[in-house]
Each structure stands twice: as C-alpha cells, then as structure tokens.
C-alpha cells in the first residue's frame, strides 16, 4: 500500500501548495492530513520540488523551526522570462493595435488570465526581497495584473479610485497631475482600506510621466504607509525622467508611429 | 527507474493541468513531454483524478477522439460550497461593515485572491453548461471576481467602462438607469473588444434593481453578442423583481439596519 499512498501524497501536496503561491503551510498541516511522520513528508517534498524545478514549474521553499513550514514559489528561469517578455512585445507590436492619438490597445492582453498570471508571478519574483504586505493599483486596466501579483504574494490588493464612492464610506482624497492628460485629477482610497505602517508595492499597466504613480505614493503617505517599490508592465521611453524614481518596467515602449503603422516595444528586463 | 519516472509524471501532470483550469490539453502534449505511451498516461491521469477527488481538490475530464485530451476542472462538493458561502455570509455580516446610507463594505473580500478564486470556480461550475466564450463585467469592484471566473473558464474578460476612453479607440456607448442611484448614466465598450455572435456570461459583485446588468445586456446586443447568463456575488432581497430575469446570486442581502447595527445576509445557494 505504501506505493499508492506516496503517489497520493505527492498529488495532493503539489495541488494544495501550488494553488496558493507564497502561502506558508505548517508541516503539521500535511502530517495530519496524510497521517505520516515529518521525515516521510520531507522525502515527498523533495520529490515535488525536484520535479517542479526540472520542468520549470516553480519550486518549494522549506523553512525550519516552530513557525516554519513549506511554500510554493513560482520561479521562472531567465529563459522563460525572456520568452514571456519577447512574446508580449511581439503581440503588442501588431500595427492594428495603434489607436488614433498614438495609443496602444492592450486590453485584450490585460484581461487574459494566463498572461496576467505569468506577469504577476514575474513581479513577485522581482520584488520579493521588498516583502510588501499590500499591492496597490488604480482603476481600471491595471486591476487584473495587480490582482494576480497580489495572488502570487498571497497578500490583499488595494484599488485606488478616481473620485470617491458613497458605497465605500469615508475616504482620503488627493489631487494629482496625470502625466498624459496634464489635467488635475482626484484619486481616493477608503479610510478602512489600509492600516498605517503597511508596506506597499504599486503595480500598474502603463507609465508615461509617472504622475499617477506619484499620486499613489502621496496617497499612501496620507495613510502612514510606505511604498517599497513600483512595477509597471509598460513604460514609455519618453520622457526619460519620470516623476518617480526606482520603478521597474517589464517592457519599454519606444515609439508608436501612426504614419507608417509601426510600434517599437521591447523587453526592459533581459531575464538573466 | 520506472517508479521515479511515474512520480515525476504525476507531479508535472498535476501542476500543469491545475494551473490552467478548463484548458483542454491534447494527450500528445503529455506523451511527448514525458516520452511515454498514451496507455501509460491514462493510468497516470487516473491516479491524479482519484486523488484530486478524494481530497476535494477538483477532477480531471478526459475527452476521447482526435480533438480530445484532458482538462482540469474545479469541482467543489455541495458541502464545500455550503461552507464557502456560509463563511462569506458570516464575514459580510460584521456590523463594522455598515456604511452610512445602508451600504456594506465588501472591498477587502472582493480584492482577496483566494476568496475570488473560489467564487470564480463556483460560477464556472454553475454556468458551465452555458458554454460562454467571454465573461463580461463593469468597472470597478467586480473585476477581480469576473477575472477569476474568466480564469476558471479559460476565456477572456471584457470590462465595460463608465464613459469612454481615448486610449481604447472607438467605442459603442449606451445610456442606462442605475437602479441604486436612479440617474441616467453611460457605459461603453471599445469596438474591438468583442466579436459578434459571442456568448457572454455577465459576472458582477452586487445587484440591487438590475439596471446595470440590463445595460450590459443591451450593450452586448449592440455588438450582435448574446448574454447567456448572469451571476452576482450578492443580490439584495428588495426589490424582489429585478430588471433582468434568470440571474444567479450566491448570497442574498436581506437587510442592513444602521440603527441596531445588524446585517442580514444569507447563502442563496445551498450547495446540494
């Protein structure tokens, strides 16, 4: 019977751990679930980790001690990162994406789960050392991406809104100058959305001048929270100097030429 | 070596299939990946399916024939559905969620990935027979839920916006009367977001009178698309008669009493 039991544990371990990335499961959770000793569990986890790594499917991290346990972590290889960003750049370069005014239509990719899952996992890997406890974004198009980043970190998402909503209670609002429209706009966050001293990672789909990201940094400060990093899927090459420093783009949009129907967008991260 | 190889295949099968729910993988994909005969693969898939089912982690569906293959499907048991909805109702009943005006603060739950993943999988199970090829929602708070439903179906999400955006190109707009505000509002969708004849499942976080959902149905008609179903996380008990028929709520909000600080919200689906 031991052989069947081992297969059973291996399947359940793989599924339970990988469906909740970054979540630390105490060893006791699995030793009780399977009714086995921790030494047996260690052997099982070694098998799962080796196979995940061999097939480029992620890895397991084990943490020793009383508050320890095991967690699943996505761990895309440099070549997988390169492949992902190259493919996204190729898709976004399609001339039919050009919208009058020099904009690029990205919504189909931003609203497709398997792309955003991979991008969210990549942001997790990039920013893991900063240990954020909230992901912050602003409505609307960046929400799926930021949500999948929050999923990869196993932390909640906070969504800043334009204006404030009666259905979310009292809110803190600030004014900011959007880099693209150059108009003064308002963004707000419900008071109850964020505790003070939170460590925040800002994730958004697009950055031009950085005015919106700067607004989110200021809004976070109003809550006594700290922005520890900023990640964007696409940043424009111009203006070179953004309103915030230290942001991490995955793709750089160099130009959108409406005349000759050409988009120049390239990976910013070479994955190695 | 056979024993190690089998364990290896089992881990990789579990991870690859379950990370992309509803996606049909041809048998040839795995027989090439592992360099094994399809008969061996069938035995492996049987093991994975049995274990997933035993632990309530989902199931595998195999489809025979040239265009066949294998897919992972979440399959929450009646008791798991009951437990999920009972816990959500309990959390949403907390008196501190009451917002002046009789609203209920739900954003923390709507922006937490593991809750929305479970709710999205539940909508997939509920609406699977309708075979939608797009999920539609309206900004903002329903996006994560609708996105996780789209993920569970392996189909794209379409997000309707208030007003129209210059960055998304030409759009179709309609006016509608929001049931809660009773004001005439505008919603729009970019022309390129949706092909004609698409089968659409509407997913939203909240329904009161159903005016917003009705607006989405009308907007879909403008594209020559068909709305095959509507799912909402929370519907209010009053008004009993909504502007659209045949919607499926998961929870019913019976009352929010600001005076005595009491919220009455209950599962609409008993899970069996």
Features:
8 helices, 272 residues, Rossmann fold, homodimer, 2 domains, two-stranded antiparallel sheet, 12 strands, eight-stranded mixed β-sheet, alpha/beta, Arc Repressor Mutant, subunit A
How far apart are the first and last residues' alpha carbons of chain A, in Å? 45 Å
How much helicity do the residues of chain A have?
25-40%
CATH topology category name of the largest domain in chain A: Rossmann fold
> Structural class of the helices, strands and pairings of chain A?
alpha/beta
| Separate helix tally of chain A | 8
Overall pLDDT confidence of chain A: 94
| Relative strand content of chain A | 25-35%
Q: Label the CATH architecture of the largest domain in chain A.
A: 3-Layer(aba) Sandwich
| CATH class categorisation of the largest domain in chain A | Alpha Beta
User: What count of structural domains of chain A?
Assistant: 2
The biggest chain-chain interface is: A-B, 56 and 56 residues
> Outline of chain A, from the CA principal axes?
globular
């Amino acid at each position: 019977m031991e052989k069947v039991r081992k297969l059973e544990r291996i399947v359940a371990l793989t599924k339970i751990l990988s469906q909740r990335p970054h979540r630390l499961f105490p060893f006791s959770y699995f030793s009780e679930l399977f009714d086995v000793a921790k030494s047996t569990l260690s052997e099982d986890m070694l098998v799962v980790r080796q196979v995940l790594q061999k097939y480029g499917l992620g890895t397991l991290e084990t943490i020793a001690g009383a508050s320890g346990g095991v967690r699943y972590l996505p761990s895309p290889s440099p070549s997988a990162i390169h492949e992902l960003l190259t493919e996204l750049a190729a898709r976004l370069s399609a001339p039919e994406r050009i919208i009058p005014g020099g904009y690029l239509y990205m919504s189909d990719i931003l609203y497709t789960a398997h792309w955003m899952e991979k991008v969210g996992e990549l942001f997790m890997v990039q920013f893991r050392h900063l240990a954020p406890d909230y992901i912050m974004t602003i409505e609307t198009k960046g929400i799926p991406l930021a949500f999948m980043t929050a999923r990869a970190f196993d932390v909640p998402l906070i969504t800043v809104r334009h204006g404030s909503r009666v259905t979310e209670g009292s809110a803190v609002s600030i004014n900011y100058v959007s880099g693209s429209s150059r108009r003064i706009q308002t963004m707000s966050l419900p008071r109850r959305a964020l505790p003070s001293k939170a460590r925040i990672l800002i994730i958004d789909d697009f950055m031009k001048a950085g005015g919106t990201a700067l607004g989110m940094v200021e809004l976070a400060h109003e809550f006594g929270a700290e922005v520890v990093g900023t990640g964007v899927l696409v940043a424009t090459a111009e203006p070179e100097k953004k309103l915030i420093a230290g942001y991490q783009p995955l793709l750089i949009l160099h130009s959108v030429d409406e005349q000759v129907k050409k988009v120049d967008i390239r990976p910013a991260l070479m994955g190695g």
